[in-house]
Amino acid sequence: MSDEASAADTSKPQKSERRTPSGEAEEVAPGILRIMLPIELPGLGHVNCYALEDERGIALIDPGLADGVSHQVLTDCLADAGLDITRVHTAVATHSHFDHFGGIARLRKLDTAQPVAVYAHATFGKVWRDAYDELLAGQGEDSASLETRSDEEVHDYLLELAGSLRRDTPWGTKTDGFPVELIRSWSDGINPIDTLRPPDVTHPVHDGDTIMLGGRPWTAMHTPGHADDHLCLWNGELGVMFGGDHLLPNITPHISGFSAYEDPLGEFFASLERVGLLDEVNLALPAHGDPFGDPSGRSAAIADHHHGRLDRIREIGDEIGNQPVDEYMKLLFRERSWGMMAASETYAHLEWLRLHSSAKRTDEGSTPHYRL
User: Fold this and answer.
1) Are residues 66 and 168 in the same domain?
2) pLDDT digit string (tens) for 286-295?
3) CB 179 within 8 A of CB 165
4) 110 and 12 co-located in one domain
5) Other C-beta atoms within 10 Å of 72: how many?
6) Which of 56, 69, 324, 363 places its Cα 20 to 30 Å from the Cα of 157?
């Protein structure tokens, strides 16, 4: 999430995105249950999983992390609502971030009445899925030798492998590796790779497609920005939209500069505008935080926030001249937020300024520099 999320003030009420799970399934719209699953990420205390029942069983939207704790919370909350998790037939991932899709790995291990179908955007997680597949394929003799190792040795080997993936960024650095101990805490009973590798999609979804969830038709809207493959789903009769991380009630979504789009921030602005035009929708169900009304107004407020960030970068450019992304990041974000996500978002904003003739880019070696 952006620096808006990191600027916490203990004298103010806690943002709903930070709340710890309630431990119950709450009906937030007709036929839609909200289950808060535990996560511990900067600015966040839970991810909302939404459950919808039909005559075949249960559909889940964003079933959380892959860890066993989240899976148990999901199981218990469904049971308290009179629902059996083995009746899950569909899992929808709004986008390919591990706190949204990880739980699919455990759902697929359940002895369900039917294989769990996975719905996500047609481009869902392809870059990262391919990267993990290439990493596994490149192990050669190590992979063959796994047959002679104990289950514990194999698990530890895959843990190290899952955390080792690093990729070049367009702003001249490499992505961070992932902490092995964190992956270990998520991967009891499942392949550690599956905690981070986006799952294969059985039902690719495109912009404008209609999918049936809970006995109702939901229209898919492709909303890139936070992630290239982000989807929102809306139903005009109910006036409800599943907003994923595209619209959050109090904090602004992180905009990823690690993108296949030339202008990820521009894509995000266009996505906000499209959602803002959905007059039929009056309730947004976000992936973090409480449900909220007036999604059109929230779309405009988030766009205003990012335009304010662009203004701040212009001021920074006047101060520091021709500099790489990291130098802009250090003045745009507070020190406690410095890192991959802050650099990624800074890059997305600098590229928007370049493409809109407010910045010039020079590539010095493999590191782009910007002058405002």
Assistant:
1) no
2) 999 999 999 9
3) no
4) yes
5) 14
6) 69
CB count, 10 Å around CB of 355? 14
Alpha-carbon distance of 220 to 4, in angstroms, equals 28
Q: Tell me the two tokens of residue 283.
A: 């309730």
For residue 83, give the CATH number of its domain.
3.60.15.10
pTM over the 0.90 mark: yes
Q: Position of tokens 């107004």?
A: 297
Which structural domain range is residue 97 located in?
3-125+198-301
Query: Is 277 in the same domain as 306?
Result: no
76 burial (CB, 10 Å; 0-12 / 13-18 / 19+) is middle
263, amino acid identity = D
14 and 113 in a common domain: yes
Segment 84-140, tens digit of pLDDT: 999 999 999 999 999 999 999 999 999 888 899 999 999 999 989 999 998 888 775
Instruction: Scan for tokens 């047609």, then name that residue.
Output: 122
Distance CA(342)–CA(318), nearest Å, equals: 20
Contacts of 120 (CB under 8 A, 6+ apart): 92, 93, 94, 95, 96, 101, 201, 204, 205, 229, 231
